[in-house]
UniProtKB/TrEMBL annotation, chain A:
Organism domain of life: Bacteria
Protein name in the entry: Xylose transport system permease protein XylH
Main location: membrane
UniProt organism field: Aquamicrobium zhengzhouense
Membrane-spanning parts: 34-56, 62-83, 90-108, 114-137, 144-163, 193-214, 235-257, 277-300, 334-354, 366-383, 414-431
Automatic annotation (TrEMBL), chain B:
Classification of source organism: Bacteria, Pseudomonadati, Pseudomonadota, Alphaproteobacteria, Hyphomicrobiales
Protein name: Sugar ABC transporter ATP-binding protein
Residue ranges of domain ABC transporter in the record: 9-246
Pfam assignment, any one: ABC_tran
Coiled coil regions in record: none
SMART domains: AAA (SM00382)
Amino acid sequence: MSDATAQTPVDRARASHLGPVARFLKDTELDTRMLGMVGALLIIWALFHVLSGGLFLTPRNLWNLSVQSSSVAVMATGMVLVIVTRNIDLSVGSILGFTGMIMGVTQAELLPQYLGFGSPSIWILAAIAGLIVGVAIGALHGYVIAYLGVPAFIVTLGGLLVWRGAAWWVTSGRTVAPMDATFRLMGGGPDGAIGSTWSWIIGIIACAAIIWLLMNARTQRKRFRFPLRPLWAEAFLGTVTCGVILACVWVANSYPWPVGIVRRYYQALGQEVPEGAYIAHGIAIPVLIALAVGIVMTFVTTRTRFGRYVFAIGGNPEAAALAGINTRWVTMKIFMLMGGLASVGALISTARLNAATNAQGTLDELLVIAAAVIGGTSLSGGVGTIAGAMLGAVLMQSLATGMILLGVDTPLQNIVVGLALVIAVWLDTVYRRRIG
Amino acid sequence: MDQPSTPLVEMRNISISFGGIHAVDDASIDLHAGEVVALLGHNGAGKSTLIKILSGAYKRDAGEIFVRGEEAIINNPRDAKKYGIETIYQTLALADNVDAAANLFLGREIRTKWGTLDDVAMESETRKVMGRLNPRFQRFKEPVIKLSGGQRQSVAIARAIHFNAQILIMDEPTAALGPQETAQVGELVKQLKADGIGIFLISHDIHDVFDLSDRVCVMKNGQVVGTARTQDVTKDEVLGMIILGKCPPGATPGPGAMRAFA
């Protein structure tokens, strides 16, 4: 019988002959792959900043970047689970289009007839309707894939055509606008952001949560006498994470409302515009939605049985089945989740556009898959993280935004994004072969 | 041949076919507590298939399974585990991308009072059970694909014995192991047997299992050639059963025994 506590000195002994960088990485237990991605993102940002003559790293551009990334980032979190189980979902863009159309028609044409125009419950009913339709579509896809055994590629390729056609069919191709006033807040814009005070409050709560999580993990490991991270590493992680969170809040709070909107705001209050009036945007609501989805999905993948099963199935489907996991039901649930997340994406992009169109979300499936894959999700299954996929979405959006700032022609933009995807996956393959 | 107690497991007249091929044809086999039964036969003789019916991986076409004299309903691996039937598969059946603790508790996770995974508790249990099986094992945080063959084997064994197995199925337990690790598995079998666990050892190589087993059961072309107490037969006679389907005098012939010699 060996005692678990006897292992600590062995680990230490092994660590002693590592170099300073390796020891740093080992002590902080940081994911080198994720660090590499953050590094790549920072390099791309710096490059665009220099090339555009200082236009990229401005609060305004970063704020817009965050809003524009939200929809794809939300869907990418679901795509991670789909790809981890060796499936693919080509239909998310079309599901987004269809559920967006459902939400648009519900709030602009159906509900006002019964509840009256501008009724406060309209936006929530419309959102729920879209969500239900999204989950139902996912359930249908998942059922055909898991229980009828049709490959996911084919089912969702069919879905891509079916739901795009359905989105067209709902209104015979007509664009539905405008959206409900409350609903529109979820798309961002000066009204769709929470202002500086609330942004700081959320930032501070997030910091407190991070510190609590670190301390809780340490107590747990102490309770079972597992090897602990050195204290300086814990402090370093806590400080850096909180610093990043507060820096993001600061950036969001450094982007003021345009003068015209400030004037209108004070006019509505019946006041004079004060001298040097400055109203900050703060964090945009769609970004908050995306962050909330990211946190929930990270929790689901790492802390629940469902998440554990998703990864086990991805690693070895046969072993998962022999261990008594109902692999079909898990697969179906993954697609239901993906459908639901596509409708959350629809919520954000419909609100942002202030309209539901039948072309909405066209080609989004490719952006979502690219974000997940750039974010480290392996197409051979079993590997992927939610945070990585969301970072991948930001990276894709950074490329697009940066090239627009530089005035790059659209065809060239697509060429660059396509190349970036292939190069990113190639680099990842090299990395995995060396380290993995 | 008569044993006084009720068998721990009895599989009666089991048949299964895949697309017209009778993989297992009217096979019957039993196992008592604290007994090791070796199931022998060529590749494709039907031994793995027969045992996968017991472990719930395949659904039989015909036949009955009794556990402690009562008919057992086994439709999937979860059902089998409810009866205390644990299996170590030839392929080990590990999820390669997750760590030892996740594999050990796969499908039977320890959860906190909020229903979330209790990873520290699972890691703690894993450290205990692995400390017993393989004291030098240290790599608790790494995906099992990075472990050596022997380490992976100990994870698979740990998973099978950790949940109070009554009936243990080991499919080619030593096929991927070196001599030292093979000896360890032998020791483990003796220890588990002393604890009163019934063990099925499946192998195509008689030398691996002959000395460990109390009885041998030989299969050929999906049928049972015969069953014998190990002390009543020689290795050569068992080889004759495996290769020719020839049942020696010390064995009880089954439906697959060659008629002329039966």
